[in-house]
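SAMPLE LOG
Freezer: B-3
Tube label: C17
Construct: single chain, 334 aa
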Amino acid sequence: MLLAGDVGGTKTILALYPANGHARTPVVQARYASRDFPSLTRILDTFLAEHPATIEAACLAVAGPVVRGKAEATNLSWVVTEEGLRARLGSIPVRLVNDLQATAYAIPILDDKDLYPLHSGEPEPQGALAVIAPGTGLGEAYLVWDGRQYRAYPSEGGHADFAPRNELEMALLRYLQQRMDHVSYERVCSGMGVPNLYAFFRDSGYAPEPPWLAQALLQARDPTPVILQAALQADPPCALCTATLDLFVSILGAEAGNLAMKVLSTGGIYVAGGIPVRILEALRHGQFMKSFVHKGRLAERLVRMPVYVVLNTQTALIGAARYGLALMAGSEDF
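STRUCTURE (predicted):
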C-alpha cells in the first residue's frame, strides 16, 4: 500500500492506496486535527493503529517549504523529515513535498465537476498554470509543460511583502506594521489573515461590533469561520464582517493577478484551498476579477487567462497520492 497525506496547519488527512490504484480513490482515509497532536509521528501511530497495513511507500504533502527531505510546517511547531518517517515506517521510499506543489500535481487530473469557471478566458495550449490557495495560510505554486506533461513546482510567494493598492490598504498595512514585524500576503489573505482584516475594521471604527458576534468570537476556537459565516448571512447583517470579506476577496484577486503575471500562466490560474469554496458566491460578484485584471498595461493579457475555483478540497491529498503512485511504479511520468 501507498501511504499518502495532506499535512496542514488545521487538519491532517492520511489515506491508503493500492500500488495499482488511482490517486482519486483511496481504500481508506481519515482526518485529524493537527493541533491535537504533538507531532506528525503521533498522528501516523494513531492512523496505522486504526488501519493496519503493509506500507511500501509514502508521500506526504506538508504546508511549508521542503528542503533536502526536511519540512518545517509553517503554521505548526512540527519538523518533519523523510529520514524520521523512514525510521517509523521502515526502509521504504518516502517523499515529502510542499502542499501546494502537491495541489498542483492534482490539477491535470481534476474533472469538470471539480472546477468552477470564474472566467473563461482564452487558454493557450500547454501554457503555464498557476495555483493560489488560501487556507490556514496562503499557498502558491505553478506548473510548466515539459514537452510531454505538466511538471509542478512549489513557491513561498504567500510570504512575499503585502503591497497595498489604495488608501484603505495603506491604512491596513500601517495598522498591521504596528503589530507584527513582517506583513505578508498570508497575513491578510488566508485563514489567519481574516481576523487581521476584521480587527482592522473594528479598531478603526468602521462599524460597531455586534454583541452577539463579540460573544461568538470569544467562544470560538477559530474566529475565521465565524467571521466568514456572518459576512455571508443576511440576517442579522454585520457591516464589519461584510467589509472584511469584501477586502479579502479584493486582495485575493490582486495577488492572484500578481502570481499570474510572475509565471505568465497563459494556460489558466486555479484558486484552491479551503476558503474559496466557502465564499464562492462572493468570488462570483465581480470584485475578484476586477482586482485580478487591474494590472495597467498588462490588463489585456490577464483578461485572456482562464480562472477556475477548485471545488475539490482534497487536491493536496490527490496530488501526493499521484506523486507517490508514480514513485512506487519507479517512474517520473504522471
